[in-house]
Amino acid sequence: MQFVENYKVAKKCKSRSQVIALALDLLRFQELEKAYPEASTEINQDWELTIRYKR
């Protein structure tokens, strides 16, 4: 908890809850960053056909 309190003071957060919320947002962002390259390697044949026929 000392880390959270120190971070709160250093970053001028209003509460420890705000520090936790910021940490969760960062974690969510990092997980999304990891997921995008994985998702870009997946190929959905139905989507590929749809895109081809619309051009």
List the defining traits of the structure above.
82% helix, rod-shaped, mainly alpha, 55 residues, 3 helices
The biggest sheet, with number of strands, parallel, antiparallel or mixed sense and barrel status, is: none
Q: Overall pLDDT, averaged?
A: 85
Beta strand count: 0
Q: Would you tell me the structural class of the helices and strands?
A: mainly alpha
Helix content: over 70%
Give the end-to-end Cα distance, rounded to a whole number of Å.
56 Å
Q: Helix count?
A: 3
String of helices and strands: HHH
Structure description:
- This protein is mainly α and 55 residues long.
- It has one domain.
- Helix content is 82%, strand content 0%.
- It is rod-shaped.
- The model has no long low-confidence stretch (mean pLDDT 85).
Topology, pairings included?
Elements (H helix, E strand, L loop, with lengths): L1 H9 L5 H26 L3 H10 L1
Helix pairs in contact: 1-2
Report a brief summary of the structure:
The protein is mainly α.
